[in-house]
Amino acid sequence: MAGVKDGIWKRGNNWYISVKVNGRRRVKSFGRDRKAAELALAEILKHRAVANATNDWSGLAEFTKPKPRKTFSEVAEDYLAERASLKYSTLRGYREVLKNYLLPSFGKMEVSDITEEDVARFQAEVSKDVSAVRTNNIMGLLRYIMKVCLRRKLITENPTVGVRPLTEKQPDIDPLTKEELELAISKIAPHYRPLFTCLAWTGARPNELFALRWKDIDFNRGEIRINKGRVSGSEDLPKTASSSRIIQMLSIVRTALEQLKGRDTANLDGYVFTTKSGQPIDKHLDHVWRTALRKAGLRHRPSYQLRHTFASLCLQSGVAPGWLANVLRHSTLQTTFKHYARFIKDTCRENEARMEQLLTPSERRQAKA
């Protein structure tokens, strides 16, 4: 920080002081407390004046002792070790981000040497190859790790603070019509047809059905219990407690499941849906879906559009948005409206008729008079 004068300044919401002590410039953060920063600066300048005259720097030990220095790779490993209780899929995702993105760029650098310019350059490079959503996810892990560095006083400023997240494009909601859905399902290989039928008519996520076992299905009550997800060979509890839910079976879902129940599944650890070789499904079956769309003569849409198809068909049939939000386990009703408002059935006439029923016969006669 050559050329920087002793003093105090604010960056973001935090106050900092900069002082040259025993030939080296030191910077210290005081968070939002400006008064504490001002008092500390005055105290340090007083001690420095004495130290310059006596060569006794003991009063400034905090500023003269060497700072702890760690590489980004070391801090990242510490970060993951302290979060060993996270879901397996979350930790696996963090390690992939570190291996493929963060460590090649920052791994050997000391965290105190990483600048805002380094971070901005990294974000720009990553965004050339992946979507804004993916870039922001990668940057999110970098931000978490640098926050830890700041809290442990390994750095005096967080270099990620001034780098704004990218604007994310809203995902395309491109559902199939009921006719398209029926045609596409009919073209799916028989072994996987029940799975795609359930994806289309339950609103469940693929990883939730991959983890489904027969013990989670109650044919007597017509219920499917969703309480976990399966990703890359590992099962985890839902991200939030609210994601666990019970889905009521439609008749088309019951029929598909009853057909599956007749298969020999004794050696499959109770999984409802499996590969053709009898193993649990660990990844999306997009190749099965693409083949079906091609055979049906329909344009390609990702298989995740089946969840959107379920939502759009529900709303177009007059289902209450609140019910749908509960089935999809949206955090708020606003999320449902945000994604699916254009599919909500126009029920103005029906609502007017219901309101009319609230009026007594005499009130209706008076209104016509």
Summarize the structure.
The chain has 369 residues and is mainly alpha-helical. The chain has 16 helices and 8 strands. It has 3 domains: 7-64; 72-151, DNA polymerase, domain 1 (Orthogonal Bundle); 178-304, hpI Integrase, Chain A (Orthogonal Bundle), CATH 1.10.443.10.
Number of contiguous helices: 16
Structural domains: how many: 3
Category by helix and strand content: mainly alpha
Q: Strand sequence of the main sheet, in spatial order?
A: 1-2-3
- The fold-level CATH name of the largest domain is hpI Integrase, Chain A
Low-confidence stretches at least 5 residues in length (pLDDT < 50)? none
Radius of gyration: 30 Å
How much of the sequence is in beta strands? Answer: 5-15%
Query: How many beta-strand elements?
Result: 8
What does this structure look like?
With 369 residues, the protein is mostly helical. The chain folds into three domains: 7-64; 72-151, DNA polymerase, domain 1 (Orthogonal Bundle), CATH 1.10.150; 178-304, Orthogonal Bundle (hpI Integrase, Chain A), CATH 1.10.443. It has 16 helices and eight strands. The strands form three sheets. The protein has a three-stranded antiparallel beta sheet with strand order 1-2-3, with helices on one face. The protein has a three-stranded antiparallel beta sheet with strand order 4-5-8, with no helix packed on it. α3 (72-81) runs antiparallel to α4 and α13 crosses α14. The longest helix has 21 residues, at 34-54. The mean pLDDT is 84. Belongs to the 'phage' integrase family. One of its GO terms (molecular function) is DNA binding. Residues 171-353 form the Tyr recombinase domain. Keywords: DNA integration, DNA recombination, DNA-binding.
